[in-house]
Input
Amino acid sequence: MRIGLVLRAAMVALLLALVLRPGWFEPVFAPLAPAGGPVIYTRSSLLSLSLSHLWLVAAASSLATLVAVTLAILVTRPAGAAFRPLSRTITNVGQTFPPVAVLALAVPVLGFGAGPTLVALFLYGLLPIFENAMTGLSTLPPHTMEAARGIGLNNRQRLMRVELPLALPVILAGIRLSVVIALGTATIGSTVAARTLGEVIIAGLLTNNTAFVLQGGLIVGLFAVLIYDALVMLEHRLARRSGRAQRG
Amino acid sequence: MTGSSDLRGRSPDLRARAARLPLSPPGILFAALGVLALALPFLSLAANRIVAGEGVSAFASAGVPTVAVAIACIAAGLALGLVRGAPWMRLGGSLLGLAGLVLLLSQGATTLLDGAGDFARVSPAAGFWCLALALMLLMADALSTMGLGPWRRGGLLVLLLAALAAVLWSGLLGDLSIAQEYRGRIAAFRTATWRHVGLAFGSLAAAAAIGFPLGILCHRRPGLRGSVLPVLSFLQTIPSLAMFGLMIPLLGWVGSTVPGARELGIAGIGFAPAFVALVLYSLLPVVANTVAGLAAAPASALEASRGMGMTAMQRLVRVELPLGMPVILAGLRIVLVQNVGLAVIAGLIGGGGYGTFVFQGLNQTATDLILLGALPTVLMALVSAIVMDILVDLARPTPERSR
Amino acid sequence: MIEIDRITKVYDGHAAVDEVSMTVETGTITAIVGTSGSGKTTLLRMINRLVEPSSGEVRINGEPTHAVKPHLLRRRIGYAIQGHGLFPHHSVARNIGAVPQLQGWDKAKIRARVDELLTLFGLEPDAYRDRFPGELSGGQQQRVGVARALASRPDLLLMDEPFGALDPIIRTRAQQDLRDIQRKLGSTIMLVTHDMDEAVSLGDKVAVMDQGRLVQYGPPEEIIARPATGFVADMVGDAERPMRLLSLIPVSDLIEEGAAPGEPVTAGATLREALSACLWTGRDAVPVTRDGAPAGRVTLQAIRARAERQA
Output
């Protein structure tokens, strides 16, 4: 636990330094840059790229969470039961669609820029959240549900006070999956001219500049690992509170 | 569970009315989507492959008799989809509708190109995609309520693929822009296909070769499991582009320093870094599912197998592996589908595959070139998923009697 | 003959089984009874070396078990456990034939043995051979589990709470069946249970374990009549003792000349059943029949005297 804490602190520090003071790392990356070429990416500020990257992910994921959880609630009500097999099939089939293909297919419709990336991230992010929310809401302990009805909660109260809180850890696991995928896919968004950290990697790939590739890769990688880790910790806390056995 | 207990709380006449309604609610949704789609442009006609096209309505895309027949097919298909509790009829409806769609697409492209100039291009537009989506959702909904066994699903998949191949082979869609892109790149497309298959399936094989023994080892030694699985899940959180990018310097270094590595094709650019990145991504699902699968054998069966004098190897081969096979195969399914998709990124680092077309298309803003890369990728991922699902079902240790 | 010689298992400095010695005669049922944590299961598992003893040894027909490789030893010893432990992915026939197959019997011989055992356990071979365990009832699964343990004609059959997962009515039936089959085959059985009734009704000898030690080992009558320690007396239960004792003695022991009114009991029934018949119908004596013919009577007085004297 102690080692984990030190490791996390070190990663946060490294990430902040890479984003805010990229100049410090010039000696580290210099051997990787082509002779005479730039070592540190300066075409735009890494901070603004990071913020724009995170904003895209946050916007897409929040929207996806809102829509996916709403749909999952609708489908797990008796009135929506007819849509349950369909929604299961759509999630299964939808997740076989490669994220890159979803991104590429959004371009013809929406043009270049942040738009298609946002839509692709949103669409692709829906599936894991919806799937987990469905699982969470349809596998509640029957005794608890019986008790909730027994003490006289109405449908709405049951949903808000019992079902959603109990399903929260499972839903959150879906959100985590979705956010990690979104962080990765947003990187590819740079190929359709969205402003994300992928810009740095792609610039490196195009100019054979390994320093850029490593720089961009490290920053995105650290973001992904840290966000994933933070969400896992949050899940564990919630799972403990709601008494659901949760495997790492 | 919650559904049925909730039902009891509902007013009885509401339930009765829902039961009497002969229409399928999803069917209503598909029909509405279909009607909406008819209002959108069905095809788009552009002066050349780069400029944006102009939308053409489904009703104006071909001669009146053709349009009438095609729209009738589509409408009839969607209408059949409304019938509740008759999945075969709904499946037939979706096929009829798709046939109408292909007819309209094929005739529409030919009609619009006629006299539109040498460089003119016709592509499917939003209306077509929405109709295709509605009809395919209808098919998926019908199939999912049928609950077919693995053999029947396999047979149906073969039939559908044969139908698709026949449509493509016949040249019915030859006037579409994407077909023109294809004709310009037949050799490149073939190479890309093999490369994509090589990347996706090759990395699957490599990941299985490494992951199975590792998973078995992790199953036997809980201590090892505790250190291997977190490392592998850490690898999976690294965004794909970064992973592919990081493989370039790494393999470049290996290629230039390890003697003989370059002769084996290991270099910083091309197939090798993409392949290694895919293998690294694949290890987690393979190892984690192998561990979970091996742990799926009931404790009492394991105790009995030890008690009757099976050796560790006999236990693995006769009890643990057969009982865990569905879970292990499910891991391979995840890997295969994931790798078919991720292999697209190889196109960015010169690794070949369908990604080449996708990224070329994005560079040239040539939509149809993007589609030429993206559609086969989606198809390959879908077919892989369906085939793997069938295998998972067939691997179930206690066969269902109803087959 | 199974000889257990000063066998001990130590876990973290604590003896789970502490210097237990006992001898089991061939062709008998020995019931090892104790509370959970008494070491009874560990004792059983040391016999087929699922648990390696810390010290002491077990000899089967004079041969020490540690002279054989563990998996080869286990193939000679049948093993049936609670919740049957059948392989869910193998048919009933494959489950029963598992050990013969491990021992390399040829197919025809395995098949014949499987059918023989299915018939013995009252399962029609043609109907049950190809079913899967999931398609059987709990009682049938348990019978297949025992049949599997007997398949290779083992020197010894070890059973760990074999009836623990069955409901009471099926359990009584299964106990009777086991008794009958053991008589028929002359098998040597060691059985672990926490249920004194089961131990007393099944065992030719009963071994009572407490905190790793064997506190009493003898025929059931002796355990009930003369418990060696307070723990054994608790296990037997003071209030139940006369009834338990009567349930061990057949009516034929107390038959006397004479007639009695009402429904008869059979000579093979227990005194407990005869007593019950007396009390329920308000009679002082009940008639006894042997093979359908009248054989005399048994009186309430004689039953009372028998229960009294022993206690």
